[in-house]
Amino acid sequence: MITIDAMMVCLDLSDLDEKLVAFSRSVCERLQVRKVYFVHNIKLYELADDFREMLGDLDLGKEVESNIADIVSEQFGNITDYEILVGQEPITGLILADLVKRYKVKLTLLGKKMSDKGTGTQGIKLLRILPCSVLVLPETASFNIRKVLVPIDFSENSLHALRLSKALSDQLQLQLETMHVYRLPTQFFPLISEEEAVKKAVEVVKGKFAGLQKRHPEIAGVPFTLVRAANKNIAERIALHLQKGHHDLLVLGLKGNNAMPGLSLGSVPTEVYNSDLKVPLWLVYSEDEIR
């Protein structure tokens, strides 16, 4: 059973906050979440001087906390223990990363607007710096999750994502499908037959998945789909398969990079995040990678 000792919900005082808080309630209703931290950081240096003068002696932190409390009261209620944290630090990512470490946060919820409403650069920064798994909620996403898709590349990280997805699907009685996107070495065409190359690639990948099922009997019954990248990149193929299969949640495993001070997001998760997905995206780090 999936249990989450501490979950953090990042709010930005936009219209998306109400939906994000309501989604956090949905997560708590489905999973065992012991405590939730609703967090916002006020970047005072971004305020114009004339606006600061207008504020006068107003305690902006208390006003923001009161605003968040109203949203939480309406959209979250008392489903589990929670705390509202409002900071005033110059760099949002650093204070959030510190909160993750201090309160041993296992999962962070982020909202995401469509690309025509923002660049999403702040979200990418947070994904790179937060030492925990992240669940991204697009503004158009539904809370009604029935089908889960987890792409794998046969690494230990994608296997961790698959195990989590299987546990989630068993716990909530969801449909689960895994997929792999493969590429062919087109630079060797026409020296080798494309038909033979496809046949060999399919044979090799199916053999890998069969071996994976033997080593991990818990995933033996999970449906597996093999997709050729062809003229699209891996992220585009994942997005197309997600839409075609009417999946409601996408889970991706992430790999840490010990040579860097932060965590490495990777090109495919970055491209997937930057696309206008209409379903929640769960980006998963294993405990070993976090350590």
UniProtKB/TrEMBL annotation:
Boundaries of every UspA domain copy: 145-273
SUPFAM superfamilies: Adenine nucleotide alpha hydrolases-like
Superkingdom assignment: Bacteria
UniProt-recorded name of the protein: Universal stress protein
Organism, scientific name: Adhaeribacter soli
